[in-house]
Amino acid sequence: MLLTLAFRNLWRNRRRTLLTLSAMVVSAALLILALGVFSGMFRDMLASATEQYYGHMVLAHADYHQRRDLFAHLDEEIASRYISLEDTEIIGISPRLRSFGLISLAETSQPVEVLGIIPEREKRVTSLQTKLVAGDYPSDMVRNGALIGQGLASKLKVSTGDEMVFVTQAADGSIGNDLLIVTGIFATGDSRHDNNLVLAPLQWVQQVMVLPGRIHEVAMTLADPMLASLAADRLNPRLPGDVEILDWGDLLPEMREVIAAYDVSRMIIVSILYMATGLGILNTFFMSVMERTREFGILMAQGMRPWTIRGLVLLETCILGGIALAIGLTCGALMTLYMQQVGIDLAGYITPVTYAGGTILPRLHAVFEAGNFYVPAGMLLLVSLIAGFLPANRAARLDPVQAVREI
Amino acid sequence: MQTKLATGILSTLLLTAIMLLTAKSVFALDVEALVRQVEQQYMGASSRAQTTMLVKTSHWKRSLEMEAWSLDRDYFLVRIIEPAKERDVATLKRSREVWNYLPKVDRVIKVPPSMMGGSWMGSHITNDDLVKANHIEKDYNLRLVEETETYFLVECLPKADAAVVWGKIVYRINKTPQVPEQIDYYDEEMVRVREIHFDDVQQIGDRIVPMRLTVLPLEKPDEQTILHYRELVFDLPLDETYFSLRNLKKP
Amino acid sequence: MDLVRLAWKNIWRNRRRTIITLAAIAFSIMLVQALHNLSFGVYAGMVDSGVRAGSGHIAVYRNNYLESRDEILHFRDGSLIDDISQIDGVEQVLPRLYIPALAQSSRESRGVLLIGVDPDRERQVNPFLKTLPADGMIRSTDSRDAVIGARLLDELQIRPGQKFVVTAQNEDGSLHSELLRVRGVVNSGMKDIDSSLILVGRGRAALLTGNSGSVHELAVILDDAGREAEVHRQVAAKLSKDQDILAVSWEEAMPNLANAIKLDYASQKFIFMIILLIVAIGVVNTLLMSVMERMREFGVILALGSKPMTLRCMIMLEAIILGLLAAAIGTVLGSLATWYLVAVGVDLADLVPETLEFGGVVFDPVMRASWDPVWMFRIAVYVVCLTLLAAAYPAIKAGRTTPVEGMRHH
């Protein structure tokens, strides 16, 4: 009964309903968009630090990360012994062998870091395959095909198809050397990778290093990078004493601090957004109910109970709030979708930025996160309820005569 | 290239070895005069040698057989004969430039200055040693600190502002035959960091030579490099043209 | 004028609504202004530290040294340092000579980039040297003193006061060595710096490469970053055309820093736009509501002979007054907030370690605001315009009513 009345009330004053609705919808949608963009930036920062090179977690000899000792190698199969894909949160496992040496061409030599990888598995951990500017990622087809950074390519003056010599100290003391063919060139914008890093097939590197079946580390990615530390804590007890898993926070302590600081500023701005939205909705809703004080007065004069008034308003609020929510969320989702797929590209204006050990791309984009939807939704409802209820309560307590007199 | 130890080794070895190989005079008590004379005698010497080098580190053990040619202190060419895996790997030094030839990929690469600290052929001898001639009396003050019936002890202290990393070098030289027995290298705080031992003294023509040198990095007690001369020939008709990039490649 | 008075009165007829709306707009203005000024202050601080440790507000290079970093591109600085120092607004001119070299101790060796500097000038300006004790800096341009990063010190396995040898290659290919002694140690906390920094006097450095009297870079530090453009002009004028040396601004010399700031500004702008839009929606709503509820009244007014135009003007005036009032209050609040943030700032020390890196520069954990009155004024103006725009639709609606329709409205 009351429900029908509520609906009818809303419908009766279409203009007012529409007005209130539109305000709420737009505010909610914009809020969701803003949150999405923030999440996008956050994700970008994290991704930049981890997905180019480190991964979210790395398994290696204790101390390997600090000293990068060539002789701290592990069995290739170590990961499968302690980690399996039943740990469903792990989505990529990539064994790697690292070698420092020289790449030479005619009279030029450059010091490099060669990372031996299994292409298909590395692609699930790092994202250099998305940063190609020429040629292809290494594959099983070319035994000695390598992916090199753009800075390195220009210093050596090579392009895809060219041959280079890699020289290093092998694990048996001999001089490891072999030819590498450039299959592809990448550019991340981070000079530390672009000038130094070479990706090559694991088996080839094992051969040059005289370390058959050995690796230095296993890099892994998780579905949710923020859970890396927990996952590491869970897995570490299973491992033998001299081997450990470090998460990206351990590998890049500066990034961890940056994210903490960013989180704080994000919270501040998000609170501002919520307040602005909340105030706006409060204002709108409040007013629309206030205006009906006279109407409520008449209803009460006609015998309607105060609590019925409250109930009625509550219902209207809920309906209005619900509809606003539905539309607002949809609009917000659509806008976020646009920003996610397309975003705003600032590349013509800014180049990539290094930031506490990572690189951020020059663009604004959004990501979808459940929290960015149900929290605003909840807030919206809450604010509407307060905004609608308070004046209704006030009206319900008034003397009907006084209420009728109000304009 | 793993960095092993610091400068002065091979050149000291060369200097010492050749000093002994060319010295004709009796070891005088005026050590400065001796060294000066030796350096002058060193000038113009040429040699060819066949050597075995054994390198032991905490992770691996390796044995190489090499053939080496030298002219003065500026030209040096060494080629690996054994093991088969590394046959024909060669190093050429000309004045201050160093090249390596890698037969497996058939390429010559120039060793950049930044890699000069790296170890040569994985041993405790560095590329830098090959390059920097150790003008010992130019950079050090030498004095005789002890003399017994069997040996001389010569202490070399760096001159003020000499660009050397050692705090002190001590030579122990046998009286008869007149060959070095041991060289000790100390850091600035007089901590002994490295030793080179000489033994297997033999007569080659009219010279007396210790045929084996052992380099000991004291802070890594299970590591060493032993360079053993199998064959030595002097005063060959060699000139600079022999030390060319073409000869680097040609076996 | 009567219209204005009428508009004013109208606004206050519904006090509650007006106050809430004013509060919403003013508050948003305050937040936006305060946040912007905070970022402004923080960026200015970052730029300041960055240029002092890096290439200065304005840098002088030869040819394309900036991109190629080719050691061959050095130039004789002659009287340039003095000439440039005399320009009004220049705080200091720092000469730098960059030499790739091999550093060796009795136990280890490392490839390094040696930087030859003028120790007295550098000491006054370079933030990495701030923590050095009084006797921890290089004593003269020719001395054998070196200031070295803490990690590099460890890697070479030496201690302060001990010697080490650097070797570099001359342009003719020959190698030259010099003895140096560790005089001071820099512990910035930034891995990159601490494992690669070596400073020596430029005279000693030049002996390594045979380049006395030459530099690769002159870093010009200004008292007031705002005067960069005019000082740049004057510096460029002093540079002789023959040697093909040129002056470059820090944005070009340190693009990482410039871009880090631009990126942050861009995302800030986006968010501010959204905040203002949200506020605008609220304002439109408020005005619309206030118009709607007075429809009857408008009908009466029109029936009594007023022109529709007058009505529209009145609505617009109400909006302007509202906007101006909100802008004024908002700006006052924003100024108060800024004043607080300038004096006290926001201390992130609990969440952030001393050395946080952003765009290659160390970040001060106390965030301080800096006044940007031009921007604050602009925002206030935008808001007033926004309010005006928001009033457009309601005003048109009001004007379009016919007297009869209006009076029928309820």
The CATH superfamily of chain B is known as Lipoprotein localisation LolA/LolB/LppX
Strand percent estimate of chain A: 15-25%
Q: What's the total count of β strands of chain B?
A: 13
What class would the helix/strand composition of chain B place it in? Answer: alpha+beta
Summarize the biggest pleated sheet of chain B: 13 strands, antiparallel
Principal-axis shape of chain B equals globular
- The CATH topology of chain B, please? outer membrane lipoprotein receptor (LolB), chain A
What is the gyration radius of chain A calculated from CA atoms?
30 Å
Task: Write a brief caption for the model.
The complex is a heterotrimer of chains A (407), B (251) and C (410). Chain A is of the alpha+beta class and 407 residues long.
Q: Any overview of this molecule?
A:
The complex is a heterotrimer of chains A (407), B (251) and C (410). Chain A is built from 15 helices and 16 strands. Chain A is α+β, with helices and mostly antiparallel strands and 407 residues long. Chain A has two domains: 2-50 and 256-405, no CATH class; 69-215, no CATH class. In chain A, strand 3 (90-105) and strand 4 form a beta hairpin. The longest helix of chain A is centred in the N-terminal third of the chain and has 41 residues, at 14-54. Chain A starts with a helix and ends with a helix. Chain B starts with 8 loop residues before the first helix and ends with a helix. The longest helix of chain B has 14 residues, at 9-22. In chain B, 16% of the residues lie in helices and 44% in strands. Residues 1-7, 16-28 and 37-44 of chain B have low confidence and may be disordered. By secondary structure, chain B is of the alpha+beta class. Chain C has 410 residues and is of the alpha+beta class. Chain C folds into two domains: 2-50 and 258-408, no CATH class; 56-250, no CATH class. In chain C, a hairpin with a 5-residue loop joins strand 6 (163-169) and strand 7. In chain C, helix 1 (2-11) packs across helix 13 (308-343), helix 2 packs across helix 13 (308-343) and helix 2 (15-53) packs antiparallel against helix 14 (373-400). Classes of the chains: A alpha+beta (407), B alpha+beta (251), C alpha+beta (410). Chains in contact: A-B, A-C, B-C.
